[in-house]
């Protein structure tokens, strides 16, 4: 059944106008972007197919051109539009973090990190460098692969922190397994980095573990 045949209050666009964007599911939001479905499937059906195939919005964001365009109804045009939308969201969140004390807007940090790392298939270690007012001045993906104390080098983190004249840092890395629970190795790595940075008077404000749409905070769990 086409979306135009649905009751008016169930159509994604009309539902958004009546109840606000927060009232829509991921599939409904994606359907508004897609606009039309394919033969035998509405835009919402196609959106659900995408979410089932890639697991989440983060998975769609991280999907390759080949992976996305293999889905019936998704061509290069839709792939380009999706990349532009996700990049605009990342840039908007980056601007917010650069303009505001991240400790007063922790949700923007979570949202940014989920969008940046949530759909990656490999493990990545990222650092947000902050000024004395806790505003983000730079961000870098420093290491990739299996992350341990022996693969994440404190001297490189210190080098980049000094380069950016950072007063504080926030660490983040992803768990492609989908489990956001910090491991013992994660805790040991964080402790080692915190001790190394303390020697040059740079604070570690938090360390986030990202898994899909989940973001676990070391600070909130008392692990810092």
Descriptive overview:
A five-stranded mixed beta sheet has the order 2-1-3-4-5, with helices on both faces. Helix 2 packs across helix 3 and helix 6 packs antiparallel against helix 7. The protein has 224 residues and is an alpha+beta fold. It is built from nine helices and five strands; from the N terminus they run αααααααββαβαββ.
Mean pLDDT reading: 86
Structural class: alpha+beta
The outline comes out as: elongated
- The helix count comes to 9
Element pattern in H and E: HHHHHHHEEHEHEE
- Give the distance, in angstroms, between the N- and C-terminal Cα atoms: 53 Å
State which percent range the strand residues make up.
Answer: 15-25%
How large, in whole angstroms, is the Cα Rg? 20 Å
Q: Helical proportion?
A: 40-55%
The largest sheet is: 5 strands, mixed
How many beta strands in the DSSP annotation? 5
Provide the spatial order of strands within the biggest beta sheet: 2-1-3-4-5
Low-confidence spans: none
